[in-house]
Every structure is written in structure tokens, then in C-alpha cells.
Amino acid sequence: MGNSSAKLLLIGLDNAGKSTILARIMEPDESVNGITPTIGYKKDKFTRDGVDYYVLDMSGESKYRDLWQSNATTIDDKDKIHGIIFVVDSSDKMRIRVAKSELDLILENRSISNQIPFLFYANKCDIKGACTLEEVQDILDLKNLKREYQIVSCSGLTGKGVQEGIQWLTGLVKLMIESGSR
Ligand code: G3D
């Protein structure tokens, strides 16, 4: 039997580490130096455990942030998104708060189905003094999130936690595809 295919949206503020994490997911053993920042958005593909993923990697710069919403809505209407990966820089508390307000805007958007699971990467956990997983979870108020989610402490730089997160999401995506819910 061939692979299933699924679509993901990768979002987070600029500098959170989205491109680094994506590079790490795509090539776990490669060095992730020389990542180019995303302008607007870019599309990528990778395969994990029998799922061919199509990823829309959204720039986190403020001037592009309204694209998060419009892309999520358009793709979800047209093609159905299977998951949203939300990356935060856990070494920067102020920016996690900004990320929280952007997250709220996405969650308020009724055209993005609440069946879509969220994978949160609390990135840059290798930096001394970075917020703990619990602190990031509290700032983002995830305990009140009314959808399926997972938060993983990770480092795009060292690779710690990155595969664990995508494995969790892949498990759910497979169930969604098997059940025909997406
Ligand atoms: P973005 O795609 O969200 O904008 P990038 O972010 O992936 O371009 O990463 C922004 C910067 O953070 C890069 O540094 C990158 O190397 C660094 N970075 C990404 N993940 C980690 C991590 O887990 N730990 C640490 N310490 N740094 C990380 P530069 O210097 O190239 O801007």
C-alpha cells in the first residue's frame, strides 16, 4: 500500500527556530547550519512512518503574520490541514507572550477546524535560563486549550525532542486518515 499524505502548517514568531526544526525533522543527522530565514512562506516535503507530509512554513515576521490565518483558513477549506506545528523560543519569555496572542487569534478563527491537533515545540531548551516546559505551557495557557495537543521541550540545534514531537503528531495524523475524519 502507498503512503498516505498529510498537510501541516508550521508557525511561530520569527527567530523561534521553525526552519531549524524543519531541517532537523527532514534530515535528523545533518548539521543544521546555514538555515535561511523564511520570507512570506515556503513549501517543503518530508516522509515519516508512511506519511508524506506537505509543510507550509510560515514566516514569523510581524508583517507576514496575517498570512498565518489566511493560509490556515484557505488550506483548511480546500485541502484540509492535518496538524499545526507551533514553535516558540523558550529562552525569551516576552516573545512567548507575543506568541500567545498570535495563538489566540488562530484559535478564535472559526474556520480552522478544532479537530486539528497542535504540536508545540518549546525550542532552544539548550540555552541556559530558558523557561521550563511547565512555564511555557502556563504562558501559552495550554491547559485550557480545547483541542488535542502536545508540548515538547526541544532544541533544533542539538536535535533533542524534535523527533519525539513529530512522532506524536504522526500517530494522530494516521488515526485521522484511517478514520476518514480528515
Ligand atoms: P525561524 O525560522 O523561526 O525564523 P530559525 O528561526 O530556524 O531561522 O532560527 C533562528 C536562530 O535561532 C538561528 O540562529 C538558529 O540557529 C537559532 N536556533 C534555532 N533553534 C535553536 C535551538 O534549539 N537552540 C539555539 N541555541 N539556537 C537555535 P542565527 O544565529 O542563524 O540567527
From TrEMBL:
TM stretches of this protein: none
Binding site for Mg(2+): S19, T38
InterPro entries the record matches: P-loop_NTPase, Small_GTP-bd, Small_GTPase_ARF, Small_GTPase_ARF/SAR
GO biological process: vesicle-mediated transport
Pfam families, alphabetized: Arf (PF00025)
Alphabetized SUPFAM superfamilies for the sequence: P-loop containing nucleoside triphosphate hydrolases
Domain of life: Eukaryota
Family to which this protein belongs: Belongs to the small GTPase superfamily. Arf family.
Protein name per its UniProtKB record: ADP-ribosylation factor-like protein 6
UniProt source species: Nymphaea colorata (pocket water lily)
